[in-house]
Design a protein that fits this description.
Blueprint lengths: L2 H4 L3 H7 L2 H13 L3 E4 L5 E4 L5 E4 L8 E2 L8 H14 L51 E2 L25 E2 L3 E2 L90 E2 L2 E2 L20 H5 L9 H8 L1 H13 L1 E6 L9 E3 L4 E4 L8 E3 L8 H16 L5 E6 L10 H16 L9 H13 L3 H18 L7 H19 L6 H5 L6 E3 L3 E13 L2 E10 L4 E10 L4 H4 L3 E2 L2 E2 H6 L1 E4 L2 E4 L4 E3 L7 E4 L17 H9 L15 E5 L2 E8 L4 E7 L5 E7 L7 H10 L4 E9 L2 E11 L2 E3 L14 E2 L6 H19 L8 H14 L3 H13 L5 H20 L3
Parallel strand pairs: 5-6, 26-32, 28-30
Antiparallel strand pairs: 1-2, 2-3, 3-4, 6-7, 8-9, 10-11, 10-14, 11-12, 12-13, 15-22, 16-17, 16-21, 17-18, 19-20, 21-24, 22-23, 25-29, 26-27, 27-28, 29-30, 30-31
């Protein structure tokens, strides 16, 4: 008997394929069941009524073959899996049922179900008072009894294994079918009030409803919430199985055994609905129950030989290259909220859906494009088993060189390039630097140092922008990129980073294609540089617990409302920013930028949603503001953090809006909000001509009962500050930057302008140091020394003595030939003052 197929629930099948395919397979099983057989090697064969022949050997759904001609996993493979569990359990214990592969009963001509069993109010043992008595009376039957009929096929009112007046075990139904649509019940179907694997207004074992059972439950039980998972009694509101061997309620976290009536919760077996014998047969372990749910097995137990057999030698070689460079992974062992062992990698999320079987491991990358992530996930579990045994959630560094021993040959050359830029200055560097930049890029690319590579690309872009006299050039940005290269180099060569791969980005792929993905729009940001408009659309990808950014640039004078009507992959930017996107053609970069393809066969669809952000994972949806403040305080300095777009974009619940104020001089709206615990945060939005409706939309959303705000978060003045990009309420998502202007008056409260000597001293010093990089140490005017001394004195006056001393040290190194030492001192001063700017209140 195939334990892997028995562990597959409708939910896991939908995760491995898609929900529509599972529904279609279930509907076809409702009409006719295939004849099954199983070889000694575990290969299962199915012959469907239309003559289609399907074979499924061990090794995953992809190993299945089918004569229907469909490419990939077809509905017949899914139907084989759904039919396997009840078939493998054999005939009913009382001998009244059919043998495996045959219909348990017959139907009369015309489709009327033949009557079998006893009165529908009786229990499985034929009495109302025995140990297996049905607690719900006529509303549910343990099995075998029928008010309408017992059949597998097409009945007058229903066809199920053990139909009852209202509901029974293993998909009993009064007016529906065991596998399919039903008004009142349906073991693996969908209908108004039931459906183990389906969807409906009030049903769904896979979580699609509120009031129905799972894989055998029917009536009004709830598989995911009330504890009825594979309950043979059916219809139990409180989750207690009428035929449970010990009588207690089942564990709500346990998984269903599939189409049949077997499930295990904490090792106790449920009753069989097919034979009417409560607790008479050992239970079948469902996905997420038993070993996986209890953490009794680890994917780290898979051997490299098994991995090679699963992904191939080429993918294993690619995985070993990543291992040599090192990578960071977050390992989640099976737990009640999510019993599937999971690994979050920088490029993908891998889930091991079936214990001890690599064939059912799933990643959110496109199949075949990044199968090396399966090996990386297994190695991450091995590291977690060694470093954090017993911890349910642990972050590990896997492979790579120890801290302080990382090979930095490519990074050496990048820092030398940065030194040349500061010594010569952007003003004096010409197009001749292109060759050196290309060589540096090639070295970093070969070493898989994604974050230094990104800094070099941005540095080169700034140099090009200056040569072209573009408005995109900013001296502060140039200096930031130079200082970042120095900071990353120092961090990995001086033992300052235990997770060197996190500093260098060696664990990142340049681009990862995604499977069919759902992306929830969190809002958008519109910015302008000269006549160029940039629109950043922020999309939450729940599967990877990340916020992805779709960026589009246009040379136009249009503002937010007009830009929101432009299309990407056939969908408007406004629909992407404020709705849910289903796409088959997305690919994400190392920096979490997302690209939507335009292939004809890969569709991208957007649909309007209402208040869906509450379903986002905890890493994106802030549970409380106090915890968010702690998280922000624990962040490493910005120059050595991952170069991730929307790194600090979060969704924050709004329990109360305490005040909304407007500063006319700064053209800024500030609002104080509070979470459910009374902890406050500040929502702060500044006017921009390219987004004329931003402030009006922010005020309207805050005063109109918004329940969530999405935006970039930071710490300032002892509180959390949110720069809003979107609001969600019961009416949908509001995107301020794409909203029309006008229609809302200024808030009643107005703030005066505040002068900040501390902030002014830091900003002045930072701008002056950026000017040094712009002009070049070799070409500074004679007045620069005096200006730097003044900046150092102002820093010391406001209490920033070490920052002031670092700037003074640079003054001492200035001269006609400053050399490499002056560059190192400049980097010291810029990094120290930059850190002060990052921590400004």
């Amino acid at each position: 008997m195939r334990a892997d197929l028995g562990a597959l629930t409708a939910a896991t099948l939908a995760e491995l394929t898609n929900r529509g395919l599972v529904k279609r397979a279930a509907r076809e099983l409702e009409r006719d069941t295939p004849k099954l057989s199983e070889d000694a090697d575990g290969t299962v064969h199915a012959v469907f009524p239309d003559g289609t022949v399907t074979d499924l050997p061990p090794g995953g759904l992809e190993a299945g073959t089918c004569s229907c001609g469909a490419t990939g996993i077809c509905r017949h493979v899914i139907g084989l899996v759904l039919a396997y569990t009840p078939w493998s359990e054999g005939p009913p214990a009382d001998g009244s049922g059919a043998a495996p592969g045959e219909a348990p009963a017959t139907t009369a001509p015309g489709g009327d179900a033949l009557m079998t069993g006893t009165d529908s109010n009786a229990d499985a043992a034929g009495t109302d008072s025995g140990p297996n008595a049905n607690p719900n009376g006529s509303k549910a039957d343990t099995g075998g009894d029928s008010g309408k009929g017992r059949a597998v096929g097409h009945g007058g009112k229903g066809s199920a294994v053990g139909d009852g007046d209202r509901a029974g075990a293993a998909g009993d139904s009064g007016t529906g079918n065991a596998v399919g649509d039903s008004d009142k019940a349906g073991a693996v179907g969908h209908g108004d009030k039931a459906g183990a694997a389906g969807d409906g207004d009030k049903a769904g074992a896979a979580g699609d409803g509120d009031k129905a059972g799972a894989a055998g439950d029917s009536g009004m039980g709830n598989a995911g919430r009330d504890g009825g998972v594979g309950n043979s009694g059916g219809g139990d509101r409180d989750g207690a199985s009428a035929g449970h061997s010990s009588g207690e309620a089942l564990d709500p976290a346990a998984g269903s055994g599939g189409l049949g009536s077997w499930a295990v919760a904490g090792g106790a077996a449920t009753a069989t609905a097919r034979g009417g014998v409560a607790g008479g047969r050992p239970g079948r372990m469902g996905a997420g129950s038993g070993e996986a749910g209890a953490g009794g097995w680890s994917p780290g137990a898979f051997t490299d030989e098994q991995l090679t057999a699963r992904v191939g030698a080429r993918m294993m070689a690619a995985a070993r290259r990543v291992l040599r460079a090192g990578y960071v992974a977050r390992v989640h062992r099976g737990r009640v909220s999510d019993p599937v062992p999971t690994v979050e990698l920088p490029t993908a999320t891998v889930r091991f859906l079936v214990p001890h079987d690599l064939g059912f491991a799933r990643s959110d990358a496109v199949a075949g494009s990044r199968d090396d992530v399966l090996a990386l996930a297994v190695w991450a579990f091995r590291a977690a088993d060694e470093q954090g045994a017993g911890e349910a959630d642990v972050q590990v560094q896997v492979g790579g060189a120890p801290a302080g021993q990382t090979g930095v040959e490519g990074l050496d050359r990048a820092v030398a390039l940065a030194g040349t830029v500061v010594r010569e200055g952007a003003v004096h560097l010409g197009a001749g630097m292109g060759g050196e930049i290309a060589a540096v890029r090639a070295g970093l690319e070969a070493a898989r140092m994604r974050w230094p590579l990104g800094a070099v690309d941005d540095l080169a872009e700034q140099l090009t922008a200056y040569r072209e006299r573009s408005a995109r050039y900013r001296p502060e940005a140039l200096a930031d990129h130079v200082a970042e290269l120095v900071a990353r180099y120092r961090s990995v060569t001086r033992g300052g980073a235990s997770l060197a791969s996190r500093v260098l980005g060696t664990d990142e792929a340049s681009e990862t294609p995604l499977r069919r993905a759902r992306l929830d729009g969190l809002g958008a940001r519109v910015s302008a540089v000269g006549d160029e408009r940039t629109v950043d659309v922020f999309l939450a990808h729940a599967d990877s617990s990340a916020v992805l950014v779709l960026r589009r640039r246009y040379v136009t004078d249009e503002s937010g409302p007009e830009l929101g009507r432009r299309r990407v992959a056939g969908v408007t930017l406004g629909a992407l920013a404020g709705g849910a996107v289903i796409t088959e053609s997305a690919a994400r970069s190392a920096s979490r930028a997302v690209r939507l393809g335009t292939r004809r066969l890969s569709r991208t669809e957007a649909m309007t949603t209402r208040d869906t952000w509450q379903h986002l994972p905890g890493s994106l949806l802030v549970p409380d503001l106090a915890g968010l403040a702690v998280e922000l305080d624990a962040l490493p300095p910005r120059p050595i953090r991952a170069r991730v777009e929307a790194e600090l974009v979060r969704v924050v619940p709004i329990a109360e809006v305490r005040s909304v104020t407007y500063a006319p001089g700064a053209q800024r709206v500030d609002a104080e909000i509070a979470d459910g615990n009374g902890v406050t945060a500040r929502v702060s939005a500044v006017h921009a001509a390219c987004a004329p409706g931003r402030l009006d939309a922010v005020v309207a959303a805050l005063e109109g009962g918004a329940r969530f705000v999405a935006g970039s978060v930071r710490r300032s003045g002892g509180t959390v500050v949110i720069d809003p990009i979107g609001f969600a309420s019961g009416d949908g998502v509001v995107v301020p930057d794409l909203a029309e202007g006008g229609g809302v008056g200024d808030p009643r409260d107005r703030l005066g302008e505040v002068t900040d000597p501390l902030g002014r001293a830091v900003v002045d010093a930072l701008e002056l140091l950026a000017e040094v990089a712009h002009r070049g140490l070799l070409h500074l005017p004679s007045s620069m020394g005096g200006r730097l001394r003044g900046a150092a004195e102002r820093l010391e006056t406001v209490g920033l003595r070490q920052a002031g001393a670092a700037v003074s040290a640079l003054v001492a190194r200035l001269g006609p030939d400053p050399g490499d030492e002056a560059f190192e001192v400049w980097a010291d001063a810029y990094l120290r003052v930059g850190l002060c700017a990052e921590l400004l209140p």
